[in-house]
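Q: My labmate handed me this sequence with no annotations at all. I'd like to see what the chain might look like in three dimensions before we decide whether it's worth expressing. Could you predict it?
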Amino acid sequence: MLQIKVKILYNKKIKVNYFHLVLRIPKIAKDSLPGQFFNIKVSDTCEPLLRRPLSIHRVKGTNIEFLYEVVGRATQILSQRRPGEYLDVIGPLGNGFNLTPNTYNLTPILVAGGIGVAPLLFLADKLAYSVERRAYRKNKKFKLSAKRYPLNALVLIGAKSTGQVLRKKEFKALGCEVKIATDDASEGFKGKVTELLKNILPLAISHKPLAIYACGPRPMLKEIIRISKKYNIPAQVSLEEHMACGIGACLGCVMNTKEGFKRVCKEGPVFNGDEIIWVGKEEVG
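A: Here is what I predict for the chain of 285 residues:
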C-alpha cells in the first residue's frame, strides 16, 4: 500500500453516468489483486473531505483502470478531471478474491449488478491468464504472447436497462459466455440477475462443479448467498460500502460475520458468502 500522486491518462464517459478512468501507477500496478480497491482524493481541495473508494477494474502494464458511476458530488468532480492532471491515491487496499489451486478446478460464475461489474473484469483477466499459464506449462511451445485460451466462465450481468449494461464485449473477448438480465426487458432476460442465476443453476451444476463470484448491491448479494447455500456452491462476494479512511482505522464500514464484526475496507471487501450475517430486512435483489 502506498499514498502517491499519480497521473490521469484517460477519464471518459462510456455510457450515461458511467466513466472509465486510467491512472499510471508503475510502482504498485503489478502488486494489485482482483477485488482490491484504491481510496482516491477526487480534488486538490478539501471539498469533498473524504476520499472515494474505487474497485480496480483492470491492470495493464503500469496502468490501473477504474470504472465508476457518477452518483453524487464527489464522483461528479472526478468525472471532470482531465488527462495530464494528478490524483492523490492510496492503495491497493483490502483483501481481494481468494484464488487457491482448487479454484481452477471449478467453473466460475461471475454475477454483477450494475457498477458491480467493475472488479469482476479484473478477476476474469486473472483467471484467463492462469488458464494461459497452465497451457504453457503443458506445452512449452505455446507462446504466452499468443491469443489466450478461452476462459470457460459464465458471466451474468444485471442492469435496469440495456443502456446500463457494462463490459459485455470485454468479457466475451476473454472467451466468457455472457448472459444479460434487465429490469425492463430491453436486453436478455426480463427480471433480476438473481432470478437468471436461479434459472441456469440446475442445469449448470449437473455438468460441472461451480464457484460463484459476485459484486453488486447488498440485496442482490444476500440473495446470491442464499442460492449458493441451497446448491452447496462456494461463493465469494465483494461488498459495496461507504468508507471514510479506507485503512480500517475509523471502523465506519463494519460487517457482521460469524467471527464477529469485520471491516469491509480491511478484512474485505471480499468475503466468503457463508461467513456473513445479514442484519435487518433487505429487499431481495
